[in-house]
Design brief:
- With 202 residues, the chain is an alpha+beta fold.
- The protein has one domain.
- The protein has 7 helices and 8 strands; from the N terminus they run E-H-H-E-H-E-H-E-E-H-H-E-H-E-E.
- Strands 1-2-8-7-6-3-5-4 form an 8-stranded antiparallel beta sheet, with helices on both faces.
- The two termini are 14 Å apart.
Length: 202
């Protein structure tokens, strides 16, 4: 499954902004501070899908079935560099909430205290050799463990902060080194990605 550049750039930016609006502090910082015209929008979908604008990024479409996996592979490729991190927002539970889930990743992440928090927000970092070595299917499971309504992940160059409590300086550093953003598309059957022009796409 190829990841295709989006023809309807205006529609893609509008859709991504709508998805980020209901997100966490980092999502709002991206909305207010990142110039999305300095990157390209891409989406995993079959070549037969007509891209003529206006393009509907939300509604269900006939897909081949491995669109999500294509994006999981992009994330795996990205974090194969030890200086790259994917940070997934969590909007359904907060730092003070009791935690209960059947998700392998979130159960493991919670037990090992992998979650990062900013005020009452939670973020799940995906980085390092342990994650880079898992299968594509397991990586898709990791990605789908985070909040789905809305799903947003932020890809940046750097390392996972050493403290579990994020500071304003941490958020500023993430924003400065941000190279990509991904949100759900096609009713959760694929992902829309924005990628900064000056950084090679995985």
């Amino acid at each position: 499954m190829a990841i295709r550049e989006i023809a309807d750039v205006v529609g893609a930016e509008k859709y991504m902004r709508e998805q980020l609006t209901d997100g966490t502090t980092i999502a709002h910082l991206v909305l207010n501070r990142i110039d999305l015209s300095r990157g390209k929008f891409r989406i995993a979908m079959p070549d037969i899908v007509d891209q003529n604008p206006p393009f509907d990024f939300k509604s269900d479409r006939r897909l081949d079935g491995d669109e999500e996996m294509a994006v999981a592979r992009v994330i795996k490729s990205f974090i194969s560099d030890p200086n790259c991190v994917v940070l997934m927002q969590e909007t359904q539970i907060g730092k003070s909430d009791r935690f209960s889930t059947e998700s392998w990743f979130l159960e493991k992440a919670w037990q090992e205290n992998l979650a990062l928090n900013y005020k009452d927000e939670l973020y799940w970092p995906v980085a390092g050799p342990e994650f880079a070595r898992i299968s594509d299917e397991e990586m898709l499971g990791v990605v789908r463990s985070a909040s789905a309504y809305p799903f947003s992940a932020f890809l940046y160059v750097g390392t996972v902060p050493s403290s579990k409590t994020l500071t304003d300086r941490d958020l500023e550093r993430i924003l400065t080194k941000l190279v990509g953003v991904t949100v759900d598309a096609f009713d959760g059957r694929s992902f829309l990605l924005w990628w900064r022009d000056e950084v090679r796409f995985p």
